Amino acid sequence: MNGGKPTKIRLNDEEAIATGSCSNSNVEEEDSSMCEAEAEADDKTSADYYFDSYSHFGIHEEMLKDVVRTKTYQNVIYRNTFLFKDKIVLDVGAGTGILSLFCAKAGAKHVYAVECSQMADMAKEIVEANGYSNVITVLKGKIEELDLPVPQVDIIISEWMGYFLLYENMLNTVLYARDKWLVNNGIVLPDNASLYLTAIEDAEYKEDKIEFWNNVYGFDMSCIRKQSIMEPLVDTVDQNQIVTNCQLLKTMDISKMTSGDASFTAPFKLVAERDDYIHALVAYFDVVFTVCHKLTGFSTGPRSRNTHWKQTVLYLEEVLTICEGEFITGSMTVAQNKKNPRDVDITLKYSLNGQRCAVSRTQHYKMR
Ligand code: SAH
């Protein structure tokens, strides 16, 4: 999944709750004859896209062109056809239908491709154009609001991961589908996701993104600095910026976890591998398909090939000066925002007791 951000769409909290970021447009509800994709495309206004970013092909283009992401799913499916042969598959959030097509090609008996955005209409056309109409059924609607034509499925596949793994909260939708339809001993793909933390030197960018507000054409706009430091920045980090080890914060077993497990507090210890300054902590995630013949997955970390998820940078209030062997200890608390469950609240507690620098602080961030 994309995080809904490349088009720079920002939903205001209330609107997001009221509408859902992928609700069908009112036009569609009022006039059910408006099901021709072409007519819809012509009829779309920027307001439709504002509330429904996954209806626009641009976001799907970016995900499909993320080769690390899409190739990993393709490899998992094509190299483990034994998992799919004669199985019933549910594709949660099918988008263009790409994962459903992979599964159908790998020999699945039937695939239910559920997609709530207008892209579902395209997925139907794509399935037809590729001759898979007898194997893939595209269902347009929210997983939470529709009925499947079958009581159970053998496999649930989904690409639900958001920025910082949990932004947009689509994991809950996958867990909902798992609990409702997955057969006993059925499999969830992927079934393992882990969140990591490291620390970086990032003077130049912190200056540009955060300290910039202290003096804008000679004026003090530091009230905006306070807001900007609270918003984690999704961007690529160069591996040479990494100053400490990378600490595993949390591993989630998607086949067993409950939705409550996505909110947690995890301790960390980041040990400096050289003398340097630290401007930010950086979070990223790995995804693994453990049921494959050969363990397969990918990492979104700064030492791996870039993905559209990039990394998530959390700037620290003040610069830490750290010497090799010294460490930052603390904890990260991750929780769904109470007002808008698609947003993630992050609390970082950290302290450093070093030769050059002693700091103990709590900072709050909000992914939105
Ligand atoms: N599987 C596709 C798309 C992944 S993006 C691919 O791998 O390319 C996630 C998709 O899930 C989006 O298209 C979004 O509209 C859809 N989605 C999100 N929440 C959903 C829900 N509750 N029910 C149905 N679809 C959902």
What does this structure look like?
With 368 residues, the protein is α/β, with parallel strands linked by helices. It has helices at residues 13-19, 26-30, 37-43, 46-51, 57-65, 67-78, 81-84, 98-105, 119-129, 171-181, 203-209, 222-230, and strands at 88-92, 110-115, 136-140, 153-158, 182-189, 192-200, 233-235, 247-253, 264-271, 276-289, 296-299, 311-322, 327-336, 344-353, 358-367. Strands 6, 7, 8, 10, 11 and 12 form a six-stranded antiparallel sheet that branches. The longest helix is centred in the N-terminal third of the chain and has 12 residues, at 67-78. Bound molecules: S-adenosyl-L-homocysteine (SAH). Residues 1-2, 22, 54, 60, 63-64, 93-96, 98-99, 114-117, 119, 142-144, 159, 170, 173 line the site of S-adenosyl-L-homocysteine. S-adenosyl-L-homocysteine is lined by residues 1-2, 22, 54, 60, 63-64, 93-96, 98-99, 114-117, 119, 142-144, 159, 170, 173.
From the structure above, extract its key features.
six-stranded antiparallel sheet; five-stranded parallel sheet; alpha/beta; 368 residues; elongated; 32% strand
* Total strand segments: 15
Mean pLDDT: 89
- What is the CA–CA distance across the termini? 15 Å
Helix proportion: 25-40%
**β-strand amount:** 25-35%
Helical run tally? 12
Output the structural class: alpha/beta
Radius of gyration based on Cα positions:
22 Å
The distinct ligands, each listed once, are: S-adenosyl-L-homocysteine
Shape: elongated
Succession of helices and strands: HHHHHHHEHEHEEHEEHHEEEEEEEEE
Let me know the largest β-sheet: 6 strands, antiparallel
Low-confidence sequence ranges: 4-40
